[in-house]
Design goal:
With 400 residues, the protein is α+β, with helices and mostly antiparallel strands. The chain is built from 9 helices and 20 strands. The strands form 4 sheets. A 7-stranded mixed β-sheet has the order 10-11-12-13-9-3-14. The radius of gyration is 22 Å and the shape is globular.
Length: 400
């Protein structure tokens, strides 16, 4: 049975919808009001506060901490300085992605690692023979995502920290309401945003301080439905939706390599050996025509309207993002699938993340996506486009 996070006593009274979901054993708000419109608008036009405490978090320390991290992930951690954050993936020995997450280099031999799935066993298996400590700190560290165009100014007013000079994917330490916190310029919305890491027992103090300071910045608590729309617009993947962890895959086609997920730039063959290196090197050297590619697709909405009109129905844009996989065709042949689909309120388009065979993944190609109207399966055009769909300059801009 799920339990509340460190911030449940604050999020529960705000959750008018009583619409929750389970995330890693915790109650997580899906939507605070009856619809996520205001929460999404806060992400894109003001400031949104999101409880992300259910993330799995690990502390990596010891003389061989850096060697261990480099052994597991495909990126070269030696290129990362203390105070820097990276997004990365890690693979099994066959070069298939186990999970993805962020790693913050706290000091030369100290790292905070986040993961979507429990990873302690996998990490400790890969730590054999190294002088390294891998600790699960998931229940000791709470986390908040403060996202949106006013989030930086809000944080400057609430935190004793150098927010103005904090660069994209960098971290600083400071205090909020007297609580020592780490603040990283990261997020899962593709917008200006920050993630705040604090002791579990002090999370309510930080929440209250941010909500109080946020009144003049139009802050809203936001749930998972709004976050899902934002992360699709940003082209950000969700494990077990846009790809299957190799640990849970039942058949080979459910396994994905980093190259198939748009992560090629995160595979550094010039560093020391890492798990899956040989398999990935072989894949890179083989013909690319057999591989799948992660792409964005834009659905031709006038065609959707036309099909509804033929049925005597008014077309309705879906109110929430869909995680149901939908076939994509070229002619009569299926060439891929859309994995996450949403109506983008900002772009006024139906968009989707998709896995498509390489020969059909070229930007500008027109495919057909399946839609169902009155239990009748039809198809409409869907154009392959570059990811991300939405990428505002403020996401990476320094405030001062």
């Amino acid at each position: 049975m799920p339990i509340g996070t460190a911030l449940h006593e604050r999020t529960f009274p705000l959750c008018q919808s009583l619409n929750y979901r389970e995330w890693s054993g915790y109650y997580t708000v899906s939507v605070y009001e009856t619809h996520h419109e205001h929460e999404y608008n806060a992400i894109r036009n003001a400031a949104a506060l999101i409880d992300i405490s259910p993330l799995f978090k690990y502390l990596i320390t010891g003389k061989d901490a850096t060697r261990f991290v480099n052994r597991v992930i495909t990126r070269d951690i030696n290129k990362v300085q203390p105070g820097q954050v990276i997004y990365c993936c890690w693979c099994d020995e066959d070069g298939k992605v186990v999970d993805d997450g962020t790693i913050t280099r706290l000091s030369n031999n100290e790292y905070r690692w986040t993961a979507a799935d429990p990873s302690l066993r996998w990490f400790r298996q890969n730590a054999v023979g190294l002088d390294v400590s891998v600790s699960d700190i998931s229940e000791q560290v709470a986390a908040l995502a403060l996202q949106g165009p006013t989030s930086g100014k809000l944080l400057q007013s609430a935190a004793e920290a150098d927010i103005g000079n904090l660069k994209y994917f960098r971290m600083t330490a400071g205090k909020i309401a007297g609580v020592s916190v780490d603040i990283s310029r990261t997020g899962y919305t593709g917008d200006l945003g920050y993630e705040i890491w604090m002791p579990w027992s002090d999370a309510v103090k930080v929440w209250d301080a941010l909500m109080d300071a946020g009144e003049r910045f139009d802050i809203h608590a936001a749930g998972m439905l709004a976050l899902d729309v934002a992360r699709i617009e940003a082209g950000l993947l969700l494990i077990e939706v846009d790809y299957t962890s190799s640990k849970k895959a039942l058949i080979p086609s459910q396994q994905y390599s980093p190259f198939e997920l748009g992560m090629a730039r995160m595979v550094h063959f010039d560093k020391e050996n890492f798990t899956g290196r040989s398999a990935l090197l072989k894949e890179q050297q083989q013909s690319q025509s057999t591989m799948r590619r992660l792409v964005g697709v834009e659905v031709d909405w006038p065609s959707v309207e036309k099909l509804h009109d033929e049925m005597g129905l008014a077309p309705q844009a879906p109110s929430t993002a869909s995680r149901v996989h939908v076939p994509l065709y070229s002619g009569k042949h299926q060439v891929g699938k859309a994995t996450s689909t949403t109506w983008s309120p900002l772009l006024k388009k139906m968009i989707a993340l998709a896995s498509v065979t390489s020969e059909h993944a070229k930007e500008g190609n027109t495919l057909e996506i399946e839609i169902t109207i009155e239990a009748t399966r039809r198809t409409v055009p869907a154009k392959v486009v570059k990811l991300p769909f939405y990428n505002p300059p403020r996401k990476t801009a320094t405030l001062v």
